[in-house]
Amino acid sequence: MGIRNMSKVIAAFSVISLIAGCGSPHVGDLQPVVSQAETPASEPVDGITVRGVVESVTSRNVYGTLSFMMDQIFVEEGDYVTEGQILGVLDTEDLELTIAQERASLESTRQRTRQAVQETGRMLAEASENLANNTNMHILSSEAALDAAERYLETAQQNYDNALQDYRQGNDPQVVIAESSLRTAGIELERIERNHENSGVLYAGGILSSDEMRQSENALTHARNRYNDARVSYENAVELQRRSMEQLRIALQSATTSYQSARELLNASRVAARQDIERLRSSVSSAEISANLEHMEIALQMLERQMEDSTITAPVSGTVTSVVAREGASGMGLLFVIEDTDNLKVTTSFREYDIGRLETGMEVIISSDATGSAEYTGIITRINPAATAVAPVVEFEAEVLVTSVSTGLRIGMNTRLNIILE
Hints:
Shape: elongated
Largest sheet: 6 strands, antiparallel, barrel
Structural class: alpha+beta
Radius of gyration: 52 Å
Mean pLDDT: 83
Order of helices and strands: HEEEEHHHHHEEEEEEEEE
């Protein structure tokens, strides 16, 4: 059936749609009314009408990967661009300075290469000689530290042994003095307590006066205070001796640990001296120097690549449909959208009860309110194998390629799609 006859049938479908409920996008399950003058009654026509949205077959988003500010934008929405055309440039003044600095640093490193080889060779020879002659400064320092730690350990051990002997034999001077004072105060307290008891008897018998009795009580109070002071002094002396013993024990442990650490340090210094020689031997190698230069060259290349990326170009030819970039804003992220406005498609969907009657390659008549009575042709190019279920409706997404040329369709337009089923 030609496009003209199909248009006539579509007009009949439109009448049916209006009668059936004004605007239902699906009329495939209705029997179309066809003019007898245009279609014989013996040739019934069945069709499906759905809606879709115009899109570009080819659409490319142009992204920026650098955080520099956008300096200039050379295109506007609607401009046609060719592949490789400059769309905008970023502000790279700081990047240019960084590249110049990296180039200067690389050149300076190249100049120092020969001196580095000579200096490393000299250091290798000196380290080997010092190890062989036992004149390595780190080893000598570690040996001196070990000697000092050994003397400190001997002193700490002697101090602790002496204090322990005094403790066991009760010869600590302060404890002995405090104990003697406590004993004397105790004897004196007992004597004064007996005198006070006698004074009490005499006072009760009227022999002692009140003043004499108060003097006896004061003497007893002073004696008790002296005894308590002596007892506290003794307890403090004993506690001081205990703390002194603890401190001497801790000092002995510290000295032992220091001595062990000094021995380990000496062994580590000897190992480190041999490792330094191996490291210096490796440093002499020109391959290591070349690797360092290669690293700097790669860093410079990365900066130069950023300079190249600072010029935003069109990856494909087409029409600029969106300009997201703004001068003075960051150039990172989506900047432009380029689409092929000459090659269009329409995305749509079909109900599940129609899907069995459709297949790719079927011809489609496309129209829209924006283009008036104009009609364009297309073909079904894709029908999704899986449905999109939005209860209670089940639909299958599909695409229709617009085959007409020079249409009035524009990206984003809403369209009507008419599929004639013969």
